[in-house]
Amino acid sequence: METINLRRSIRKYSNKSLDAAAIKSILQAAMQAPSARNQQPWHFLVIQDQQKIKAYAKQASNAKFLEEAPCVIIFLTDKENLKTELMYPQDLSAAIENALLQAAALKIGSCWCGTYPNKERMMLVSDMFSIPQKFEPFAVVGFGYPSELEAFQFVDRFDESRIHYEKI
After folding, report:
1. Backbone angles phi, psi at 72, to 5 degrees
2. Which domains does the chain have, with CATH numbers?
3. E strand intervals along the chain
């Protein structure tokens, strides 16, 4: 529970880059996510080129803060080999949550920028990063070490009034 309780969306990053081991650890966590019929529809595009990240941040209305991110991972859906097409959004969402939690465990900040199902955002990502048509952009997630010391502080979101037993 500790990592879950401390995970936050971090939008201000220091200029310290992520090493290959940290990125691999985050991606390993993502790939451990459950998926419908074990279809594992995910692919990942890791971007560390600061010019590419800044250019995307300037174009994306929902991702201006990524301009400071030392690393962006684009979560992609391989739509050619789906066993259960209607379930891939849950599969990718589970993979992203695993990645966010692993980043928090490593004291790396992250923020999920929704892309799917917004067609304009999906097209922007595809165009700016030359993504082949076989892949569909699902989300863009920024990763980096937080620039604020209080980034990983507990905020209690538990609300017992939202819990119902047997009937609503």
Report:
1. -125, 135
2. 2-144 (3.40.109.10)
3. 42-47, 71-78, 109-114, 135-144
